[in-house]
Amino acid sequence: MKNYVLFIVLLVTSHVFSQNDPKSAFQRGKYELAVSYYKKADFVKAIDLFYLAAKLKPENEIGKESIKKVDSLREILRKNIITQVIGTWKKAGNQPLWASASASTMSQSEVDEIIEISENEIVFYELNKKTNQKKLLKTENLVYSDKCSASLYSEIVLSDGTIWNCTINDKLNVLHVINVAVQKDGGIEKITTNNQERFYIKI
């Protein structure tokens, strides 16, 4: 009987403590908001909020459950991206398509820079505009990065260690990649200024 009473006291005390713990309350709020976005199938917002909830207190039940949600949503979002990017893309420049200087420079070139993306690899080559001959430049395995430099699901790491975040404009069929970090022996070094960018259009 004494043990039972002690258990009830500890349970009540723990509940009161958690209510008075601002960090736990903040975590629960983010988790519940993430769940609401998840139910609406807004997975991009949901994964960011689940990740935040997991980072706040990874050791508690909410933290552990949030990590599981992040992992499952990564798979869903990456499958969505790969269905969109599979195909052939032509480099349109280092600036948005509406930047005339970028478009002009690419049009004056004798070759087009082309990438072919499949589920497992990216092939880079040059296409001679006059002869229509291809020149293979390199082939890269399609490897995702989970280091979260800019995005939780859309970063790929190349063999030289550079990490690129990829976004797609569905309406314009434009693929935008930006170098957000580099992977070194000592860890990940984020790039916050003068990031290299590439814009590709689907052909």
Which properties best describe this structure?
203 residues; alpha+beta; nine-stranded antiparallel β-sheet
Structural class: alpha+beta
Q: Uncertain regions: pLDDT < 50 for 5+ in a row?
A: 1-14
The Cα radius of gyration reads 23 Å
Give the strand content: 25-35%
Distance between the termini: 76 Å
Shape field: elongated
Number of helices: 5
Task: List the secondary-structure elements in sequence, H or E.
Answer: HHHHEHEEEEEEEE
Oligomer: single chain
Q: Largest sheet, described in full?
A: 9 strands, antiparallel
Could you report the average pLDDT, rounded to the nearest whole number? 86
Total number of strands = 9
Helicity level, as a percent range?
40-55%
TPR repeats: 27-60
Keywords: TPR repeat
Protein name: Tetratricopeptide repeat protein
Secondary structure blueprint with pairings:
Elements lengths: L1 H18 L2 H18 L3 H14 L4 H25 L1 E7 L6 H9 L2 E7 L3 E8 L5 E8 L13 E3 L4 E8 L4 E11 L2 E4 L6 E6 L1
Antiparallel strand pairs: 1-2, 1-9, 2-3, 3-4, 5-6, 6-7, 7-8, 7-9
Helix pairs in contact: 2-3, 3-4
Description:
41% of the residues lie in helices and 31% in strands. The protein has 203 residues and is of the alpha+beta class. This is Tetratricopeptide repeat protein. Keywords: TPR repeat. InterPro entries: TPR_rpt.
Summarize the structure.
With 203 residues, this protein is α+β, with helices and mostly antiparallel strands. Helix content is 41%, strand content 31%.
